Amino acid sequence: MIRAYKFRLRPTARQEAALRAMLADHCSLYNGALQERRDAYRHSSKTSISYGQQSAQLKSIRDFDPERQGRWSFSSQQATLRRLNKSFAAFFRRVKAGLTPGYPRFKGVGHFDTVEFPKDGDGCRWDSTPHDARTRVRLQGVGHVRVHQHRPVRGRVKTVSVKREGRHWCVVLACDDVPAEPIPATGSIVGIDMGTVHFFTDSGGIHEPNPRFLATMADELTAAQQHLSTFPKHTKRRTKKHRAAARKVAELHARIRRQRLDHHHKTALALVRAHDVIGHEKLNTAGMTKAPAPRPDPGQDGAFLPNGAAAKAGLNKSILDAGWGQFLGILAQKAESAARRVIPVDARNTSRTCPDCGHVAKENRVTQSKFECIACGLVANADHVGALNVLSRAGLVLCDSA
User: What per-residue string of b and e applies to 192-214 under the rule 16 or more CB within 10 Å gives b?
Assistant: First the structure.
């Protein structure tokens, strides 16, 4: 299995200055490579520049600017160029698919937060000393940085990434050949129905509460954002108070993100420990949270008809606050590590299908929380009905694969 381990770095003041310089120089390399691609396409008869061509220029760039580019790892700079190449590949893929293209943009120093080292031992080295207090990661141009290793690293370290999160620094290790850690079987199979009123409802009728981390901190976050909005947006040099206000907003968002991640890990772990097989709906969260298309008024040029955008915005916010995509990803990873099985099933009509007689109709869903079958008269909670149907479909998949 492939797993990622994330640890907090404890750099000295000099090492932190070197880390900031490393991010700034890699950001400059990224922006320079992007500018070269833009200029070549605009002024050289639509010429495209490949990653291989830009990577071949790295040696001359490092010789020309040894103070800023020559002191960092060559392979990490190649990884930065590959990062730009992936952005262009995604751009052309969206163009061919007829989606919103999203041309790659220049990165500000405050928005370029990660430097990747593609191979352990090439520009970086992970010290696998088992004692937490003595764990170090060696970074070219920075030195041996102390790491707060709160759990053992299993498998073989493949790549090392250094990431800035606000005023903190982290190291992310991508490891291969991580052994599974099976846990005793329980003989239980469950289906879950994700929601916004309840985080999910299982096929046993148990509702997992939705903590609504964003809604809980909405007042504090709104006050911080309003304070930040009092400063002018376009200034050459931000004041100390302006930077403090921006940092306050970022810290609140980071706290919400950490709380949500912690809740997802604990909830997923409880499911994996209690059940051998877990079925869930295969959800397209990006499509579900898409804003409704505008409706032009045919009787008046430049006017639009109501399209329910305000109501949809509230639903989108609740879905994103719940973080279904992140939770289901964590659930799949923990299940694989524990030798459990997660089965995604078709989500269509799970809350409109009667689990007793199988009748499907939109009229069966009376309200958001009430289900009443118009064929057999079954009355139940709509989320519980959805979880039962998910369980039934997961059981069919399990039988077909047996």
Answer: bbbbbebbbbbbeeebbebbebb
